[in-house]
Amino acid sequence: MEDRYAYQSDSDAIRCTPTNYRQYNLLCWRKKLSDGRHSTKLYAIDRTTGEKLWDYYLGQSNRLLPPIGKEEEDDPPPWTCSPRIHEEKLFVGTLDGIFFCFNRNTGKPIWYRNVGSSIRSTACIGDDKVYFGTESGEFMLFQSKVVNNAG
After folding, report:
1. Is the pTM value of this prediction over 0.85?
2. What is the Cα–Cα distance from 26 to 43, expressed in whole angstroms?
3. pLDDT tens digits, residue range 20-54?
4. What is the distance of C-alpha 110 from the center of its chain?
5. Rounded distance, CA 70 to CA 74, Å?
6. Fewest C-beta in 10 Å: which of 66, 83, 106, 108?
7. Contact 61, 31 (CB under 8 A)
8. Are 123 and 130 in contact (CB under 8 A)?
9. What pLDDT, on a 0 to 100 scale, did the predictor assign at position 13?
10. Are 53 and 63 in contact (CB under 8 A)?
11. How far apart are CA 32 and CA 85, in angstroms?
12. Mean pLDDT, range 52-65, rounded to an integer
């Protein structure tokens, strides 16, 4: 017997590797807007039923992305980083340079930071620190226990 389901979002494309955690899958969907830019939502999908548990609008990019398969050498890569779980937190970055920390169960933001450059790398976590790289070549580090939002 196969265990499978399909969840259809109101978005166009999945541009990250899903993260599986206990009862749900977490992934980012991109929706192309009429002007060529895109918006991105983070979704938590129940692994057994395929139902949406929660979603969060991550924002609208100020950059144009080429259609999949029509990228040229100088175009930005069309993917986004994948969500990462650590304890009760979920971390994910955006193409607009915002790095979010969410409550993994509710999808509510705990804190976020604008790092000033697109985030395409998936975070890694060690010693209660969150590490990730930016498109401008910076290697960033945040304490995972940060609670104040400097926006």
Report:
1. no
2. 6
3. 777 777 766 666 666 766 777 888 888 878 888 88
4. 15
5. 12
6. 108
7. no
8. yes
9. 65
10. no
11. 27
12. 78
